[in-house]
Amino acid sequence: MKPASPPNFDQDAFRRALSQFATGVTVITTRAPSGQLIGITASSFNSVSMTPPLVLWSLATRSASMPVFRENSHYVVNVLAASQLDLCKRFATVKGDRFEGVSHAAGDSGMPVLDGAIAWFECHNRSRYEEGDHVIFVGEVERCGFTDQTGETQPLVFQNGSFHSLGPL
To answer: What residue intervals traverse the membrane (predicted)?
Structure first.
């Protein structure tokens, strides 16, 4: 296999080009061995496989939450609705107890499922891959669900540095 060529662009150009891709917004939740609830906002969620049911997301290696996510057996991917922008920002920026006052319920795995999420995936932490400055987590979905039976609830979307909702074309 031919080796990769060195990048022919600067890091700012790479960041700006990536920002053009619209992504859904999730909050990944788990429980530390101490019982403390942990959650982080992530837009790196993607499906991998239907059989077995696999999804992936990534986390910066320097994240304070990395040790818990790396060692835990389970986590939940909560897909946020457009109406949950405050929740997105809370799990992206708040220091201390991000769950204070946040309505949630324990899933079958004991991990927190956020009330109002338009979909959720309870995952077994199947594998991890260190790549660059992130770790890619591959989860095997044990249970999943969604709240909007009609498909009318808009997802929260991030693109070009701003949050959006979607509308039909």
So the answer is: none
Q: Confidence class of residue 115 from pLDDT cuts 50, 70 and 90?
A: very high
Task: For residue range 129-148, list pLDDT tens digits in order.
Answer: 999 999 999 999 999 999 87
Is residue 13 in a domain? no
CATH number at residue 38: 2.30.110.10
* Domain containing residue 132: 24-147
Identify which of 23, 60, 26, 40 has the alpha carbon closest to the alpha carbon of residue 162: 23
What spatial distance separates the first Cα and last Cα of the chain, rounded to whole Å?
A: 42
Q: Is residue 14 part of a domain?
A: no
Shortest CA distance to 84 belongs to which of 30, 21, 163?
A: 163
Are 140 and 131 in contact by the 8 Å Cβ rule? The answer is no
- Would you say 168 and 81 are in contact if contact means Cβ atoms under 8 Å apart? no
Residue 61 lies in a domain: yes
What does the block give as tokens for 109? Answer: 């795995």
Which pLDDT score, from 0 to 100, does residue 40 have?
96
The total number of structural domains in the chain stands at 1
